[in-house]
Amino acid sequence: MSTDSILPPCVDRIETTVACVLRGRRTIGAFRPEVPPREVVLEALELARWAPNHKKTEPWHVYWLGPETVTQVIALNSRLLTASKGVAEADSKSKKWAQIPGWLVVTSELATDPFRQEEDYAACCCLIQNLQLALWSAGVGTKWSTGEVTRHPEFLSLLGIDPNQRRAVGMIWYGYPAVVPEQTRRSVDSFLSNLP
Ligand SMILES: Cc1cc2nc3c(=O)[nH]c(=O)nc-3n(C[C@H](O)[C@H](O)[C@H](O)COP(=O)(O)O)c2cc1C
C-alpha cells in the first residue's frame, strides 16, 4: 500500500489481512486429526451471522453435529453410494468421512414466496463464506459439501428438521488442513464488462 493512501494506516493493515484471507482460503480435502477448539468455531459463527440478509430474515440455522449424528450421516451416505456406485466406493467414502474432525450443517428457511426463498438461500451462502473466512483466519480450513446426501429427505429428518420448513445449504466440514491445495481464478478482465 502506498504511503500517500487516503486511508489511515490501521485501515491499510486491516485491508491487507482481509485480502490475505480472501485470496488464501482454500477448500480443504484432507484434515489433520486434531479437533479445533469449540470457542474458535463459536467466534467464527458470531462473525458469520453479520452476513447480509435481505428483509433482515436471518434465515440460517446451524447444526453442530455430534459423533452419533455424524455416524448416521455417514451411514446414510454409504447406503446412497452403495446403490449408485457400489460397496467399494461407499466404504472408501465412509472411511474418509470418519476422519473429518468437525461437522456443521447450515440450513435455510423455506419461505412460501419463491423469490424470498432464493434470497434467503443467498443470505445463507453469505453466512457460510463469512464462516469459512473467519475460520481460515484462525488457521482452520473448511469444505462446503453438497453431495447427494444433503439433498436426501432422510438427511434432514435425521437432524430433526422438517423438510417443509428448511433446506440444507451445505455441510461445512472443518479442521486444521493437512494439505492446502492450489487454485487459480480467471482474471477480472475475463468477467468484467465496463458499460458506458
Ligand atoms: C454451493 C457449493 C457447494 C460445494 N459443494 C462441494 C462438494 O460437494 N464437494 C467438494 O469437494 N467441494 C464443494 N464445494 C467447494 C468447491 O469445490 C470449491 O470452492 C472450488 O473447487 C474452488 O476451490 P476453493 O474453494 O479452494 O477456491 C462447493 C462450493 C460451493 C460454493
CATH architecture tag of the domain at 34-75 and 102-179: 3-Layer(aba) Sandwich
As an assembly, this protein is single chain
The average pLDDT value, as a whole number, equals: 94
Which structural class best describes the helix and strand composition? alpha+beta
* Strand line-up of the largest beta sheet: 1-2-4-3
How far apart the termini lie comes to 30 Å
Order of helices and strands: HHEHHEHEHEH
* Fourth CATH level, the homologous superfamily of the domain at 34-75 and 102-179: NADH Oxidase
Gross morphology is globular
Structure report:
The chain is an alpha+beta fold and 196 residues long. Helix 2 (38-48) packs across helix 5 and helix 3 runs antiparallel to helix 4 (87-98). It has a domain at 34-75 and 102-179: NADH Oxidase. The two termini are 30 Å apart. It is 47% helix and 14% strand. The chain is globular, with a radius of gyration of 19 Å. The mean pLDDT is 94. The protein has a four-stranded antiparallel β-sheet, covered by helices on one side. The site of flavin mononucleotide (FMN) has 9 residues, from strand 3.
